[in-house]
Amino acid sequence: MTAVGDALCEALAARGISSVHDCRVHDYPMFTGAYYRSADTLLEDLEEYPSIKIAIDLHRDGILNPDGSATAPIAQINGKTAAQFMIITGCDSPETEIPEYMTNFKLACLLQNCAEKAFPTLARPMLFDYRNYNQSLFKGDLLIEVGSQGNSLDEALYTGELLGEVIADAVERLK
């Protein structure tokens, strides 16, 4: 996913948008506690770069078919195969306090709309649910799943490029 983040950042830079790509590993030596460690990283980054407007937690989805084989969600874009992406945004509930969840949801909708306009088959349906994923820490914080364990690296890298275009379009609309 680090390489996909690199591709996303390069696409943003090509559109004149600066980004911070923090590649710290949070799920090693164990997955348990990864979101607590990534929360610390996000807060450190926000302190160091107070002009950050959007925070993306980039992942690959774990999607299996009923028989246990991997699913690879794909889209054909400009004659190339891309891994589809999915935006996940949480909402407030008694168990998950996300005071700015509507701000995050509006950003997710903007990204989804920009993706649908530019690359109609690239985005999977958005997941809006009682989940947090550190989205309570910052308005403008989303989790994006790029493909799954069934997609090739080339498919995911291409999606990183396309996602950079989508995010750049959204940023331009926010101005």
Main features:
alpha/beta; Aminopeptidase; 4-stranded mixed β-sheet; two-stranded antiparallel ribbon; 4 helices; globular; single chain; 175 residues
Question: What does this molecule look like?
Answer:
With 175 residues, the protein is an alpha/beta fold. The chain has one domain: Zn-dependent exopeptidases (Aminopeptidase). The chain has 4 helices and 6 strands. It has helices at residues 2-14, 34-48, 101-118, 153-174, and strands at 55-61, 74-77, 80-83, 85-90, 127-129, 141-148. The strands form 2 sheets. The chain has a 4-stranded mixed sheet with strand order 1-6-4-5, covered by helices on one side. It has a two-stranded antiparallel sheet with strand order 2-3. Strand 2 (74-77) and strand 3 form a beta hairpin. Helix 1 (2-14) packs across helix 4 (153-174). The radius of gyration is 16 Å and the shape is globular. The two termini are 29 Å apart. The model has no long low-confidence stretch (mean pLDDT 94).
What's this model, at a glance?
This protein is an alpha/beta fold and 175 residues long. The chain has helices spanning 2-14, 34-48, 101-118, 153-174, and strands spanning 55-61, 74-77, 80-83, 85-90, 127-129, 141-148.
What secondary-structure arrangement, pairings included, does this model have?
Elements: H1 2-14, H2 34-48, E1 55-61, E2 74-77, E3 80-83, E4 85-90, H3 101-118, E5 127-129, E6 141-148, H4 153-174
Parallel strand pairs: 1-6, 4-5
Antiparallel strand pairs: 2-3, 4-6
Helix pairs in contact: 1-4, 3-4
